[in-house]
Amino acid sequence: MNFGNKKNYSIERKKARWGWIFVIPSLIFFSLFSFYPIMNAFYMSLTRKDLLSLRAPKFVGFRNYLYLFQSPDFWNSMSSSAIFTIGTFVPLLVFSLFLAVFILSRDRCYKFFQMAYYSPAVLSSVVAALIWLLIFDPRGLANQGVNFFLNRSGVDYKWLASTHMIRFSTIMVYFWKYIGYFTIIFIAGISGIPKSIHEAAKIDGANSWKDFWYITFPLLKPTTLLVSVMAMIQCFKTFSTQYLFTQAGAPTRPINVITLNIYNTAIKDHRIGRASAMSIILFIIMIVFTWLQFKTSKSDEVTYL
Question: pTM of this prediction?
Answer without folding.
Answer: 0.85
